[in-house]
Every structure is written in C-alpha cells, then in structure tokens.
C-alpha cells in the first residue's frame, strides 16, 4: 500500500470547478493534494522530487499543453492525463513519453483513484531509486583515482596479486587500497561491492 502521508498529488487543470472536484475527491481518499491552475506553477516548483509525487494533468490548457509539460518534466514524476479533447495520437504520444494513464473526462472516481494509486507506487519506487543512486555516487566520489582503478579490477574477480601486476604496484599496497575501497563503499563483502558497482554502472547507462 502506498504511504499516503509521505506522498503528494499535484492536480493541474485550468478549469476551477474540475480542479476543485478532483482535489476534493483525492483529499477525501487520504491524499496530500496540491491544486494548481497552470502548468507554469508546477514547473516552477523546486521541490518536485523531494518526496514521492505524481501529477493529475489536463491535456489542453492555455499557454502550454499537457504533452509539453510532460516533455519538460522529463519523467521526473508519473503523470495521469485527463482530457475532454483526447484523440488516439495524443494518447499514443503521452504513453510513449512515460504517462501512466490517459483518462477521458468526466472520469469515474474509482478509475481515477486506481490510476493515482498506481502512479504513486511508481513514484515511491523511483524515489527510492534516486536516493540509492545519490548514496552510491556519494560513496564513489570519496575514492581516489587509484582506489577506483583497484575497485574496477577487484569486482571482476581478480586477486590482489593480479591487480598488483595489472597496475604495476606492490601487492601490499593493493591490499591497503582494497581495504579503503571496502570502507569507503561501506561494503562488507566483495559480493556487496560488486552489487554497488553494478548499480552505479546501470544508473550511468540510464543517463545515456
């Protein structure tokens, strides 16, 4: 079950009555709701990723469409689109951009609540992933260049004497570097170190 108290739902719609009704429904269901009347108000928020959150977003709004908002958010938050003007091409584009749902107005209460629940579950997973990534990158940042070289070889399964040969260093020196790598990476075993390095490389690949 999603932790409602630790997550937010941003409702973005230029129609005052629709926005109020959506916010009222979501608050009655226990969600922490922030109601906004324009996309700019959402995009100017500096704390969007500070806690798990999703967006219930109108597709057609003055100044900026929902699809343009989606592009600017760059998958930072899961989006549930609501529209009274939707078509197949817009739906396909929204889904390709990572939208979780594309629902027509008026939307059934149960349908909306189910979509928001799914969106927040995804947001919780992504929030944990961001925190884990930041923690791993912080640990790696404290390694010296030589310690990184030693770590890269150690995680391939090479022994201290093999790493020493590869790097042209004394085995005793490699043992010291290896111990420092384990300490700085907060890894108790080589298996844990391999897992951390694998995750770090996966995160780097995601950015490419």
UniProtKB/TrEMBL annotation:
SMART domains: HTH_LUXR, REC. The modification 4-aspartylphosphate is found at residue 58. Residues 136-201 form the HTH luxR-type domain. CDD domains: LuxR_C_like (cd06170). Transmembrane segments: none annotated. Pfam families: GerE, Response_reg. Residues 8-120 form the Response regulatory domain. InterPro entries: CheY-like_superfamily, Sig_transdc_resp-reg_C-effctor, Sig_transdc_resp-reg_receiver, Tscrpt_reg_LuxR_C, WH-like_DNA-bd_sf. SUPFAM superfamilies: C-terminal effector domain of the bipartite response regulators, CheY-like. The keyword Glycoprotein does not apply. Keywords: DNA-binding, Phosphoprotein, Transcription, Transcription regulation. PANTHER family: DNA-BINDING TRANSCRIPTIONAL ACTIVATOR DEVR_DOSR (PTHR44688:SF16). This is Response regulator. It comes from Paraburkholderia sejongensis.
């Amino acid at each position: 079950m999603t932790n409602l108290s630790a997550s937010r739902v941003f409702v973005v719609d230029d129609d005052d009555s629709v926005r109020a009704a959506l916010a009222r429904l979501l608050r009655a269901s226990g969600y922490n709701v922030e109601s906004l009347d324009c996309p700019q108000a959402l995009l100017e928020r500096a704390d969007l990723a500070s806690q798990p959150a999703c967006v219930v977003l109108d597709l057609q709004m003055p100044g900026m469409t929902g699809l343009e908002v989606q592009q600017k958010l760059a998958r930072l938050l899961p989006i549930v689109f609501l529209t009274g003007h939707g078509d197949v091409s817009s739906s396909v584009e929204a889904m390709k951009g990572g939208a979780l749902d594309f629902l027509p107005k008026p939307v059934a209460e149960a349908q909306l609540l189910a979509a928001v629940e799914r969106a927040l579950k995804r947001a919780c997973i992504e929030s944990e992933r961001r925190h884990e990534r930041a923690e791993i990158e912080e640990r790696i940042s404290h390694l010296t260049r030589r310690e990184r070289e030693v770590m890269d070889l150690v995680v391939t399964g090479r022994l201290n004497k093999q790493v020493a040969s590869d790097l042209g260093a004394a085995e005793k020196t490699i043992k010291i570097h290896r111990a420092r790598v384990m300490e700085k990476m907060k890894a108790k075993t080589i298996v844990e170190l391999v897992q951390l390095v694998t995750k770090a490389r996966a995160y780097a690949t995601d950015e490419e």
